[in-house]
Amino acid sequence: MDYGMVLALMGAGLAVFLPGIGSSVGIHIASKSATAILSEKPERYGQFFIMVVLPGTQGFYGFLGAFMVMRNLNFFGGGLPEVPLGTGLKVLMACLPVAIAGLVTAIYQGKVSSCGILMAGKKPELAFKAGVVYAVMVEIYAILGLLGTLFMLLYGVTWPKVA
User: DSSP letter at 129?
Assistant: First the structure.
């Protein structure tokens, strides 16, 4: 069994799985607040949409990290290479920043967005200033997790060649 490949694919799996969970939880949190306000003020749908979908971006960041792993392992071209155990471990570790940052920031971004939505329900003029801007501040840390993963995958891993 190619344990290096198993570790590398575990990293790719975690990069998709954990931010995906965080994104779904974050969107759930924000959408509960939005639907509560929209039941009385449906005209505010457009104002709340961005705050509801923002926690979903972490899922895309995780997918990007996993896609880079699969592309570099020739996953889509067939003929997978033999992956040394050390390389598989490096790939697994390189995927953790986007996986963990994506999980945590998506949940907290959902909470921040929820508060912004509730505030904008009472003071619509603050929807962008306090609602979206505060939620984007959390997004910065998800982007840093993605960048950490990308830099490690690009510069910290010597990818095996297909035989």
Answer: I
- Lookup: tokens for 15: 């990069």
Residue 150: CB atoms within 10 A of its CB come to 17
d(CA 78, CA 163): 11
Identify the DSSP state of 162: P
Full set of structural domains in the chain with CATH: 9-155 (1.20.120.610)
pTM: 0.92
pLDDT class of 89 with cuts at 50, 70, 90? very high
**Residue 43: predicted pLDDT:** 86
Q: What is the DSSP string of 70-104?
A: HHHTTTTTS-PPP--HHHHHHHHHHHHHHHHHHHH
